[in-house]
Amino acid sequence: MKKNARKRDFIERSLIGILSFLKGSLFAEEHALKSGFMQSLDPRIKILTFAIFIIATLLAKSILLVLSLYLLCLFLACISKINLGFFLKRTWVFIPLFSLFIALPALFSNFTPGEELFSFKFAGLALVITRPGGLTVLLFVLRVATTVSFAVLLSITTRNFELLRVLRIFRIPQAFVMVLGICYRYIYLFIGVIENTYFAIKSRVGTAMRYKRGQQIVGWNIAFLWVRSYQLNEDVYKAMLSRGYSGEPQVLNNFRSGLRDWLWLIFVGVIGICIIRFFH
Amino acid sequence: MHIPDGYLGPGTCGVFYLIMLPIWTIASRIVKRTLNARQVPLLAIGAAFSFVIMMFNIPIPGGTTGHAVGGVLVAILLGPWAACIAITVALVIQALLFGDGGITAIGANCFNLAFVLPFAGYYIYKTISYKTPISSRRRVIAAGIAGYLALNIAAGLTGLMFGIQPLLYKTANGRALYCPYGLNIALPVMLGEHLLVFGWVEAIVTALAIKYLQKHSPELLAEGRRIE
Question: A-chain residues within 8 Å CB-CB of B31?
Fold first, then answer.
């Protein structure tokens, strides 16, 4: 029974994935609208400072330094009125936990030889955890968790359209500028289309199906999503024309930065410079 | 296949940004030159399409599921240069808005998934399908083979990137600073899982999508539809 339930559920898994993805995104906008510290910063300065934080985390060689940056990230989340439980769950699931899982073998002497820390027997095999192995895994997982935490904090404290608009202000080639702006909106539309199609299939099928049939359904869905995309292209183009599109995209730049933004940039810049000096 | 931040050292990340800069510039110029105003939304919709392809769970034997990357399919439908832009945009949105794939690793991820994958896949598809008619069964097989081979080439390169990290970055006493596994582990692991599982998922999705388009909307597979 349990086995059958597991087998039949590729549509349900997709639906759950898509729904949770949608909810997560909406939730993220909810955080960006709060009146916390990060939300009050000019998005241009915020992106710049988060880039410094992420690069500094990448350059840091010491576990203590990476741990300090991680704690700073948690502190920034707190003063930005982000629930710590939500933030830890959002950042640790999936990438850092997956990284921990794949880094685990590096704990053992077979992969990282060195001074013995701890040894035990498992299924008749003598396994030895080494000190260099432990330090390697700790630094690796902590670094991944810190960079993911900074990236997630940036995305949840900034409204999505602002984040993309900041990218458009920098000197990015025009083709990318146009594509970014339109693409973001259609991701949500397509997720809705997929969701409705899967609901329709599930309501008609209602029972277990063989994996080959499932693969055919997915192939059909992807192909028809493209057909719909192509049809949509014409409508979008007409909508763009009706709004005054003349072949050149217009980028709005109404960001304002104040004293607090500049002080924050100087503070983060000093941290970055210190870490780069330390790195060298 | 999406490399998160912290797996690659700063030098490797920088090198792949430098490699991708001229590729993005050329892609942008070629697409701007050949794109007519009507196709502008198509490129953006193509980017959204390449983003959502990864959300389709595909059932595989044993009751589990996997997902395709879709890079080869997008390249067959849009052309390789337009696919490069579309997949880059999808990867940037994934990294910035959803924290999937590293920000410092965008250059490396784009090299594997927005350059190597669509270009290798597109030219393998074009070579095998040669000048056969749009409705030919050979095109379905070509799409499948292109999906399988291109994904494995990209996976091999990802394994290579991981594997050289312990050689490039280590502490004075030899501890790895980034990805802890050398080429002898990273390369076979990355290639093994893609040769055995994910390559087949990519092949099935690419071939089936082309088969259905042949049957219901063959005009979308015509050469002139691509942005080249």
Answer: 175
Distance between CA atoms of residues A218 and B211, nearest Å:
12
Q: Which two tokens stand for residue A142?
A: 């902590």
What's the rounded mean pLDDT across residues A167-187?
Answer: 72
- Distance (Å) from the alpha carbon of A124 to chain B's nearest alpha carbon: 24
Asked if the model's pLDDT at residue A7 lies above 50, the reply is: no
Backbone angles phi, psi at A122, to 5 degrees: -135, 120
- Give the pLDDT confidence of A200-249 residue by residue, as tens digits: 777 776 666 677 777 777 787 788 888 887 777 777 777 877 877 766 66
Query: CA of A82: how far to CAs of A23, A77, A90, A235, B174, in Å?
Result: 16, 5, 11, 40, 39
Residue B147 has pLDDT above 90, yes or no: yes
Domains of chain B with bracketed CATH: 10-225 (1.10.1760.20)
Q: Is B38 on the interface with A (CB under 8 A)?
A: yes
Chain B residue numbers with beta carbons less than 8 Å from the beta carbon of A183 are 44-45, 47-48, 51, 86, 89-90, 93
Res. A28: pLDDT tops 90: no
CA distance B26 to B18: 13
Q: Strand A116-122 vs strand B57-60: parallel, antiparallel, or unpaired?
A: unpaired
Contacts of B52 (CB under 8 A, 6+ apart): A187, A190, A191, A194, A225
Residue type, B83: A
Q: Do A55 and B65 touch (CB under 8 A)?
A: no
Chain A positions touching B53 (Cβ under 8 A) are 222
Domain ranges of chain A: 2-94+147-279
**What token pair was written down for A94?**
């999936």
- Please determine, for the modelled complex, whether the ipTM score is greater than 0.95: no
Instruction: Give the H or E element holding residue A121.
Output: strand A116-122
pLDDT score recorded for residue A261: 85
pLDDT tens string A37-83: 888 888 888 888 999 999 999 988 889 999 999 999 999 999 999 99
Question: Is B9 at the interface with chain A, CB within 8 A?
Answer: yes
CA-CA-CA-CA dihedral for A247, B97, B20, B196, to nearest 10: -120
